[in-house]
Amino acid sequence: MRKYKKILIIKLKFQGDVLLTTPVVNTLKEHFPDAEIDMMVYKSTVQIISEHINIHKIYGVADKKASPLEKLRNICQVIKEVRANKYDLVINLSSQIALGLVMRCIPAPMKIGFNFGRQKSKYWVNAYDKTLDDACDHIVPQNLSILTLLGIDRMVNHTSMTYEGRHWQRLKARMDELGLTKEYVVVQPTARQIFKCWDNDKFAAVINHLMGKGYDVVLTSGPGKEDAEIIDDIVSQCTVKPVTEFAGKTSFPELAALIDHAILFIGVDSAPGHIAAAVDTPVVCLFGATKHRFWHPWTEKLELIWAGDYKTMPLRKDLDRSFRYLTYIPAEDVICAADRMLTRYPAPKTLFNDVK
């Protein structure tokens, strides 16, 4: 097997998608321990892998919010930096058609990528030395399958997220000030799009149940106004108020530390669920009109509840993105799933059994 010293991985998608590429990073590091492994991701997703121990350098690419001119200037600058670093292996895990041109602009002895349905497009295929069809049941084994083009057959089959200890120390100090004295469950009720969200009153029912059983509940969310409104509405319906101190106020490394020390994570289809899987915290995850089998958190410690088991879900092209498809999931079923997970996985690492 050829040895590689400088490797670039490209993944231009959302935060959770980027985190789901970490098995590729870890596998490459295991096979090529002396290699520098860099990543090219959107600027908005840099933070989720910013403290990963196996990633050497991260290039941030302007995303959809940037103006066309800003995008052009940014990608030209990034390509200039990439070319200067003289990679001997480039792996593209993204499907944007423009990456066919980007790959042509990056000189490297070996460039590999997925076909993404473009098997008959010479423009796409000719940008690589080797390509592979994307045909797996879940994104993690799909990402890993690209490494078979390098002759690698022993994979690191788990996601990972690392963070500096100072993040937990800061959070723990604030928890002490707030008087958190019990094992806690992290609940993330918000997602980037409302069609991935559940009903606020049902989340309140789950929180009431957990706090009634003697657990603390810590609510987390994105930083946006809509996220804050959802958090406020849920709290207004809770018998005992959960902790909202950290909702919308943590970096991704801080959020990883918070979830890492929780006894359980409950949330919808969003990046924090993948963070929970990456730090090995048990997960109850709610999915609606998305491909739950392909995108679910990659962990055995999972209770997956899909709205499609209660009501037929629409095809992607027929989605009403303003409708909460998770509404068909009963609160009682999530409560039962949480109870099962709390019984099945008594906490080996929590606030009061600190492994950090």
Give your account of this protein's structure.
The protein has 356 residues and is of the alpha/beta class. The chain is 35% helix and 15% strand. The strands form two sheets. It has a six-stranded parallel sheet with strand order 3-2-1-4-5-6, sandwiched between helices. A five-stranded parallel sheet has the order 8-7-9-10-11, with helices on both faces. Helix 8 (200-212) runs parallel beside helix 13. The longest helix has 18 residues, at 68-85.
What is the average of the pLDDT values?
A: 94
How are the strands of the largest sheet arranged? 3-2-1-4-5-6
Q: Are there runs of 5+ residues with pLDDT below 50, and where?
A: none
- H/E order of the elements? EHHEEHEHEHEHHEHEHHEHEHEH
As a whole number of angstroms, the C-alpha radius of gyration is 21 Å
* Secondary structure tally: strands: 11
> What structural class do the secondary elements suggest?
alpha/beta
Ends distance: 37 Å
General shape: globular
Helix content: 25-40%
Strand content: 5-15%
DSSP summary: helix tally:
13
Largest sheet: 6 strands, parallel
Quick synopsis:
The protein is α/β, with parallel strands linked by helices.
Descriptive keywords:
356 residues, five-stranded parallel beta sheet, alpha/beta, 35% helix, 13 helices, six-stranded parallel beta sheet, globular
How do the helices and strands line up, and which of them pair or pack?
Layout: E1 6-10, H1 15-19, H2 22-31, E2 36-42, E3 57-61, H3 68-85, E4 89-92, H4 99-105, E5 111-114, H5 122-125, E6 130-132, H6 139-145, H7 165-178, E7 184-188, H8 200-212, E8 216-219, H9 225-236, H10 252-260, E9 264-268, H11 271-278, E10 283-287, H12 292-295, E11 302-306, H13 331-344
Parallel strand pairs: 1-2, 1-4, 2-3, 4-5, 5-6, 7-8, 7-9, 9-10, 10-11
